[in-house]
Amino acid sequence: MSTDHPDSNADSQDESSSLGDIKVHHNVVASIVRLAALKVPGVVSVGGGFVDGLTGFFSSKESERGVRVIEDKEHDSYGFEIRLVMQYGAELAKTAYQVQLEVLKQVPAMTGKNVSRVDVMVEGIKLQEPKKESSATPASSGEDEAESWISHPPPRT
Fold it and tell me: What is the dotted CATH code of the domain comprising 26-129?
């Protein structure tokens, strides 16, 4: 791994090949972690707690919410701090452990770097409302609206 470039960014993973430089920004790594966490049953959202509400107020970057990436260049690895909101009724410790395992699986597979640590903070729980099933069939709900618009386009103003 090469990090001696004068324009090297502290917020990215830099590598060089014979064809040129390869940079993976920490926001991309944070997105991998976020998506891995959301795959775990019982996780409602990544971020969304009080601390991330303040972060969101001061930062417009969605990818920074809920995941902190700590790069250890000496050991060529990442550490993470993940803030989660979990579903009411989920086994919190078991679900957090599953998040750790999923991150340990996805990050090395996608970045080629090891994961040294995954700290999970449960910042809240939320009662998930069951998804409402509509009485309309999927074919009739979307297609009728499209056909109606084609048959009777909105008036021009």
Answer: 3.30.70.1350
